[in-house]
Amino acid sequence: MRFDILTLFPDMFGGPFDESIIRRGQDKGLIQIALHQIRDYTVDRHRTVDDAPYGGGAGMLMKPEPLSAAIESVKKLNTDATVLLTTPQGRPLTQKLAQELSLKPGLIIICGRYEGIDERIHQHYVDQEISIGDYVLSGGELAAMVLVDSVTRLVPGVLGSDESAQTDSFGDGLLEYPQYTRPPEFNGLPVPAPLLSGNHAEIIRWRREQSLKRTAERRPDLLTQAVLSDKDRLFLKSLGVSNVS
Ligand code: 9D3
Fold it and tell me: CATH number of the domain that 189 lies in?
């Protein structure tokens, strides 16, 4: 998978992309990431990338010509790529969307800045607009990094077999159970007895119940979509939870 990222702040990407799984994906040749400074595609003396909105209002917009030139140029390097724009108005990023994007031949990601970009860039070039959640960021760069990270881990071969087994745990749509390592008592807190019992069936049951309890407490919205058994529903009912799938 090739990622081309168009941004006014390419230096922001150094840390996250030079470490850990994204680093490994690049080293293995499974992903390629190229950063492009949008300002390099200006032709005026002041290298202007922003302008005031027609109709007035606070703030500035990214002007269309440098973005257009940057996109046209990068499309030649990443043929058949899907063009994404990070924006608060976009489709919320979920594991399902990351899965879909991981199947694309390539991605071009435009990082929004200021109050947004000229609407004609959306119309001409953008295939999908993506948000990473309902909170306000200062620009699209951090969102682009989150997107690259979530997609990279799904590219076959990037994760080791140990790590990729973990990706499945999103599978039933429940939160993870609590986990413990040694020592058996820490700061007066014991490891729950079922985990020390050596009884595999008891461990499995305890973990499942903890997942269900946590999900009911913290993310009740997930229970309407979760894959549940009759036994799961019975346990949830014993907790007083009934609005489930
Ligand atoms: C006048 C309203 N503006 C400021 C509150 C709207 C606005 C414009 C640009 C708010 C944030 C931004 C910059 N954010 C992004 O570019 C962005 C973003 C986000 O803020 N939250 C979640 N996902 C994303 S993806 C890109």
Answer: 1.10.1270.20
